[in-house]
Design goal:
It comes from Virgibacillus siamensis. InterPro entries: TANGO2. This is NRDE family protein. The protein is of the alpha+beta class. It is 19% helix and 37% strand. It has one domain (3-252): 4-Layer Sandwich (Penicillin V Acylase, Chain A), CATH 3.60.60.10. The chain has a seven-stranded antiparallel beta sheet with strand order 3-4-5-6-7-8-9, with helices on one face. A six-stranded antiparallel beta sheet has the order 10-1-2-11-12-13, with helices on one face. β3 and β4 (42-47) form a beta hairpin. The longest helix is centred in the middle third of the chain and has 16 residues, at 153-168. It starts with a strand and ends with a strand.
Length: 256
């Protein structure tokens, strides 16, 4: 994931609203969202190289989503795949705090990342760069490849649009939510962060929806969970910036 925008516990109908984009190299093999054959409680897309995932929810309501922390000087040599972080939380039984404390003990086993874990009733944020566990308060939040709510243009833009739309509407149209994270407008140079990748690449990475010749937004997800624990999960996949297909899922959270 490279962009996660969410509203938590602040809407009249939905206690959790997530609009998120996954950006990745086009050549990396990926499976669309599905209930996993080896763990049928997990609904998520899957990286077919390392077998992990970037965002998912379980039938019991465990939710997790991850973004990479942008630092061109870090190396993946000898490090674990970050997709294992989301996968392990979804497949496990630890509470969010217990799991994040475990990640603190493994701080240096992964290159930089941000992760949100919890349930539609309780969410927490952790970055192994900061190494602090933080509870996410009610409200609208955004996460890209820096820390939670860092005011990058894509984060502030999508947060503002999501907040404006959901607070004005009791019923939500998923097409409108997808439009919010399908914005391809590049930010002005004076608004760009300096992450060490150079001005030209900063421009190309600045929109919510990225489309470059070899790297870009591979999929988008809208996740809605209402106060009766009904889940709507819709994924749209893209082929080099062009719409490929849509997969909708719905179920009701049930605790075992």
């Amino acid at each position: 994931m490279c962009l996660i925008t969410l509203q938590f516990q602040h809407h009249s109908k939905y206690k959790l609203i997530v609009a998120a984009n996954r950006d990745e190299f086009y050549q990396r093999p990926t499976a669309d969202a599905h209930f996993w054959e080896d763990n049928p409680d997990i609904l998520a897309g899957r990286d077919l190289t390392a077998k992990g995932t970037w965002l998912g929810i379980t039938k019991q309501g465990r939710f997790a989503a991850l973004t990479n922390f942008r630092d061109p000087e870090q190396t993946t040599a000898g490090k674990k795949s970050r997709g294992e972080i989301v996968k392990s939380y979804l497949a496990g039984k630890l509470t969010p705090i217990e799991y994040l404390m475990k990640l603190q003990d493994q701080q240096h086993e992964f290159v930089g990342y941000n992760v949100i874990v919890g349930t539609p009733d309780e969410l927490y944020y952790y970055s192994n760069v900061q190494n602090e566990i933080k509870q996410i308060p009610a409200g609208t939040h955004g996460l890209s490849n820096e820390f939670l709510n860092t005011p990058w243009p894509k984060v502030t833009r999508t947060k503002s649009k999501l907040q404006e739309y959901v607070m004005a509407n009791d019923s939500l149209d998923q097409n409108t939510l997808f439009e919010i994270i399908s914005d391809t407008e590049e930010a002005a140079d004076e608004q760009l962060p300096g992450t060490g990748v150079g001005l030209q690449l900063e421009r190309k990475l600045s929109p919510p929806f990225i489309n470059t010749p070899e790297y870009g937004t591979r999929s988008s997800v809208i996740l809605l969970v209402d106060y009766e624990n009904n889940v709507t999960f819709t994924e749209r996949t893209y082929d080099k910036g062009k719409f490929n297909r849509e997969k909708p899922f719905s179920f009701r959270i049930c605790e075992k």
